[in-house]
Amino acid sequence: MNAQFHMNPETYLDEIRANLPRYDELQEAAIDAIPFPPGRVLELGIGTGETTRRLLERYPDAEVTGLDSQPEMVFRARELGIEVRLARMEDPLPDGPWDLVISVLSVHHLDADQKRDLFRRVREQSRALVLGDQVTAAVHALPPEPGVDFLETAGDLAQWCGGEIRHSPVATSIRSRRPPARGERCRSSCTRSAIGSRT
After folding, report:
1. Among 73, 89, 131, 195, which is least packed, fewest CB within 10 Å?
2. What is the mean pLDDT of residues 112-137?
3. Cβ(139)–Cβ(198) under 8 Å?
4. What residues form DSSP beta bridges with 176?
5. What is the DSSP letter of 83?
6. Could you tell me which residues come within 8 angstroms of residue 156 by beta carbon, excluding any fewer than 6 positions away?
7. Which pLDDT value is given to residue 19?
8. Which tens digit of pLDDT belongs to each residue from 162-196?
9. How far apart are CA 66 and CA 46, in angstroms?
């Protein structure tokens, strides 16, 4: 697979499913990791909107804002009737607070320093983070592409998020808690979660 497949919203889902056979399981695991019914949600790297579509099926009252750096994906995701902005994850995030920040198969395109910076910015504005992504493994169903994919260990991601690692047959989960700030109400547990694909 080459990086160009990411740019065509018409073929993206077919190509990612062909190259990552457990893609739908990863999506479901990410939605299952959401720790409480979110109100305001920010999706990083929204792509075709597949994660948001699943999130809205489970939590129809959520208000989602999506970010993506590719205009073709922004136009496709807007078909869901949500706000989608053309922006990179490295750019300043839209103003929070967010109940949830979620990202599936996007953060691995950032290098280690960019990931640490992103997680710091997310912690400042959100109650929970769910990350469904590739991590380093002995064998990869979707081999990393040099210069495009920058995989980290689940342990590093957990440390940078301030979390703990939990394993399932599909994913490695990383959770951390952030107590509500003064004057901030939390609907349920304030949990920060991350999932990395175990391929």
Report:
1. 89
2. 90
3. no
4. 192
5. E
6. 112
7. 85
8. 766 655 555 554 544 454 444 443 332 233 344 44
9. 5
**Least-confidence region, from 43-57, 58-72, 121-135, 142-156:** 142-156
Residues forming a β-bridge with 102 = 43, 130
Give the span between the Cα atoms of 152 and 113, in whole angstroms.
11
Three-state secondary-structure class, residue 193: strand
Which of 124, 106, 192, 194 has the alpha carbon at shortest distance from 153? 194
User: Could you report how far apart the first and last alpha carbons of the chain are, in Å?
Assistant: 16
pLDDT tens across 65-111, in order? Answer: 999 999 999 999 999 899 999 999 999 999 999 999 999 999 999 99
DSSP for 156-184, please give it: HHHHHHT-EEEE-SSEEEEEEE-PPPTT-
In the chain, % of residues over pLDDT 70: 78
d(CA 63, CA 134): 27
175, 190 Cβ separation under 8 angstroms:
no
CA distance 24 to 14: 11
Q: What local confidence, expressed as pLDDT, does residue 144 receive?
A: 82
Which of 33, 15, 48 lies closest to 142 in space, CA to CA?
A: 15
Structure tokens at 24: 């739908």
Query: Domain 3-197's class?
Result: alpha beta
Q: What CA–CA distance (Å, rounded) separates 135 from 167?
A: 13
